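Dear colleague,

Thank you for sharing your sequence with our group. We've completed the structure prediction you requested, and as agreed, I am returning the results in plain text so they can be pasted directly into your records. Please verify that the sequence below matches your submission; if there's any discrepancy, let me know and we will rerun it promptly.
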Amino acid sequence: MGVMGEAFTQLLIPVAALVGIGFALLQWLLVSKVKVSADSDLNNGYSDRLIEEEEEGIDHEDVAAKCAEIQNAISVGELSLSPSLWFEIPEGQPHFCLPSIGTLASSWVFLVPSFSSFSVQLRASAPKVSLALITQAVYIATYANARTTLEARKGVGKAFIVAFRSGAVMGFLLAASGLLVLYVSIHLFSLYYGDDWEGLYESITGYGLGGSSMALFGRVGGGIYTKAADVGADLVGKVERNIPEDDPRNPAVIADNVGDNVGDIAGMGSDLFGSYAEASCAALFVASISSFGISHDYTAMSFPLIISSVGIVVCLGTTLFATDFVEIKNVSEIEPSLKRQLLISTILMTAGIAVVSFFALPSEFTLFNFGSTKTVKNWHLFFCVSIGLWAGLVIGYITEYYTSNAYSPVQDVADSCRTGAATNVIFGLALGYKSVIIPIFAIAIAIYVSFSMAAMYGIAVAALGMLSTIATGLAIDAYGPISDNAGGIAEMAGMSHKIRQRTDALDAAGNTTAAIGKGFAIGSAALVSLALFGAFVSRAGIETVDVLTPKVFIGLIVGAMLPYWFSAMTMKSVGSAALKMVEEVRRQFNTIPGLMEGRAKPDYATCVKISTDASLREMIPPGALVMLTPLIAGTLFGVETLAGVLAGSLVSGVQVAISASNTGGAWDNAKKYIEAGASEHARSLGPKGSDPHKAAVIGDTIGDPLKDTSGPSLNILIKLMAVESLVFAPFFAAHGGLLFKLL
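Please find the predicted structure tokens below.
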């Protein structure tokens, strides 16, 4: 038994979760004090002399009124998508999400008879919990966009605080609510299972499946939505009509802003929520069949939840460094402040892990290791969690190096635009492939160290280590689209060039942090998937996975192909939707008199409808591929072939995801590098509208579906297939391999 008692553990976890939720609500309250109305300056207690609006800017009251109008248009656009994901669907909305959830719930009942209907009912609620959190996060992001724009009039520091606090609302709400719901679920399940801890934590694996199911719709559907609008807006607006980004004359501009929230906020939030749920479930399941579960040591059993609890407290303190302790005064201080968040949270969390490992765990214990047991000491688990935590930091910083225009890789891509779009594409692809090297080594080292010290449990807690600072990671990531939309609103509201420069600076930093967030998501997905793979092998009763066996090898090579099939589907979906968007934007420019001159308003609603319909319709085929592959492979070919499929998709998917995300991010920032013209080299490639700039825009447009749809969505492919296989493992082990039995 560890030093920490069961009573203290029972108190620590819910209190930490409630503190996190309370902190999120406090941040929301502080953001809400910025009023989006004509008398916002009076309501905020600022006199006109404190508003640093230049003389060429429009009247202050008109600015607030326009910002409110634009925010309302974005909110309406988002409501056209989110209600279709709820159970109470307005008449006429598509119903694509519900049959998928219903099918999964039905499958639990018929294919996993060892689970009670009581547990199935509870686990089926996980998608609704996840969806509620993601929808709230999207609402908060929309709520913050215009407020960030208005605060930019008072200085870049004020705008930064609003954007970051809004991101913190999402980060802490997801991290704390996810922990609290898992804690409550475990206690509700214990009413049914009693002392059967193995059965209890076996059924808890459905929590991870529920979270990942919603992540599939958030990542894939949201990615298709945002990139259909973005590509359509850029191709016609910037390339053909030569008008600025976020110009209010562009009919797709509102759909583009909606997409930033739907794709980046909902997508990343649901992705990391799913990773957290799956990593926790994998660790709890392995622990339940180890000495923790056998001896009913509640505190040691709750080690994964205690790590998450400490992470919330650490992230809370880290957030204060950005919002209260250090004031942003210059544009150059924005990106370093965000990077400090990662470093500070990692250092503090390392100390927290050391304390938890010493007090919550026995000095020595045994862990399940594929049919045998492995003797482990508490300091072994400290290194396992820490190696995951620091591997995440390495991946984040390497991602920043390859995607930030402050460093030579992106500057080289920008320079290649001198000779046209073709060389830009070649350089960008090369950068993406090269950016895979160090993250893969970091993941490999984390896997080797954690597995050597604590078997599959070590890998599961290493994944949790990487996700332990999820609140800070999500806050930094959500800051990006909030700042991006703030800049768009400033452009549409006709605010001065000085204000637009401030929002552009916020956006440029956010672009890099979004890429860092994707790196974290991919790295954690790799560790989570491997942990789930180990749990699947254990539950399926497979002693060894021998790649020389034909059954395994065919699964391995097919699994390695799946990320390419999946990417082809999502890329084509974005292309098809973007084609419709381009045609609609062209139609409006050609048929609405006075639109180009600014005398008429475009029809924003039609473009929003195109993105909404495309995202809900086009996510069905890739979603079906992910959810049906394990069922078909396990039922027809058996658990050994399915093990090969999971291993192949993991190894292949991680490489493709990192490459695609970083290639797209580099192309995006190469374009911004030319547009900003901050250095002599950048000015030699510009200005906007020059041939190098047009080549950069084409590269950015190609990269959009790579970095925001196909790349990040591969996380869901490898995680959802693994957790689905784990849930259905008893059925596959007992009844799978029908085809080989017939032969």
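Summary note from our side: The two ends are 52 Å apart (CA to CA).

Kind regards,
the structure core
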